[in-house]
Automatic annotation (TrEMBL):
One of its GO terms (biological process) is lipid metabolic process. It is found in: Membrane. Pfam families: FA_desaturase. PANTHER family: OMEGA-6 FATTY ACID DESATURASE, CHLOROPLASTIC. It comes from Anisodus tanguticus. This is Fatty acid desaturase domain-containing protein. It comes from the Eukaryota. One of its GO terms (molecular function) is oxidoreductase activity. The keyword Transmembrane helix applies. Belongs to the fatty acid desaturase type 1 family. GO terms for cellular component: membrane. The lineage of its organism: Eukaryota, Viridiplantae, Streptophyta, Embryophyta, Tracheophyta.
Amino acid sequence: MACSVADSGFLFLVPKTRPIHSTRINQLASSGTYCLKWESLPQLSSKQKRCLISSRKRNVIQAVAVPIAPSPLDSAEDRKQLGEKYGFRQIGEPLPDNVTMRDITETLPKKVFEIDDGKALKSVVISVTSYTLGLFMIAKAPWYLLPLAWAWTGTAVTGFFVIGHDCAHKSFSKNKLLEDIVGTLAFLPLIYPYEPWRFKHDRHHAKTNMLLEDTAWQPVWKEEFDSIPALRKAIVYGYGPFRPWMSIAHWWLCHFNLKKFRPNEINRVKISLGCVFAFMAIGWPFIIWKTGIIGWIKFWLMPWLGYHFWMSTFTMVHHTAPHIPFKNSDEWNAAQAQLNGTVHCDYPSWIEILCHDINVHIPHHISPRIPSYNLRAAHQSLQQNWGKYLNEASWNWRLMKTILTICHVYDKEQNYVPFDEVAPEEAQPITFLKKVMPDYA
């Protein structure tokens, strides 16, 4: 017989030595002690079973106390408090272990998977028009309005990325050759090689929030942080004040090195790299010839930095929060990572329009085959069927402050430990952010 003293927070395993009478059962129940049959114990490893069975045979009574730490996500009130603390509108309750991706996908209406070439063309028209308008604004705006023109143009060119993103997932057009052509062209103004990004991004979807395997954001490892003292400050800045532009480092380190790709991917990678280098060799000199170096900075570099702000921000908001864990491959659960570990975030309407609803992100992780123009309908379905498990927010200062000042070093128990706890003497950038960033949601 195994008895659990629930109120004490400990689990006691006691071998069955003699029957327990009903009066004793009532005493146990009234004291908060509950008795379980041996067969009802959770699944144990073979080694654990041998130890317990051996103890039963010898009739040696030995209590083993194992602390049971309740998860702060188990209580609705705790989730509400965490949401307010982190800047979330809702933190979803934990998804049961027995729920599979298939269970979730089957609740989505079939129409959200339908590709509509007319809607795809509309998204191209929106991006081309808004980008052209942005370039016109840069050309005509006085110097003090240039930041607004750059913000608009950088957001508009992010829409090009979303179009290429749909093409890479084969959810843009019924014509697959057209998808690869449009995807390659959409990525060119961003100097982004289409095929290398596609291969890396597919792995992100296959292994979302899996330690060492996810190709998007990864937390810093304590061992890594301690082993390279010369780079510690750079890491603190990179995961702190510079984090909204850290996708630049990811862009350069992950997409131009042929050694990072499988042999069967190399030829397609080389074609994409050739297109990017051709654009740089022709496009950049043309811009400089027409507008000078200052024009290259105004018309290309600043919007490009604006794009990377959104690329970094969108990506880290999608999967980074103190309550969202990274897990080893042997503990990882696809449904929990994709539904429970992905964040829906509402941005101002003009951003949502120019970026083609890419931040309606949970359905995209349930199935990348859903086109961007069907993401809102898919999200409504998920809210109806799985709403209590969803993480939802509206973009706000507190949310960004949480990510930039807390989500740093990996810790299995806490998910993240901030830099100012790990290395307070080197964490001045984080301390600075805590002081200067507003704290309202």
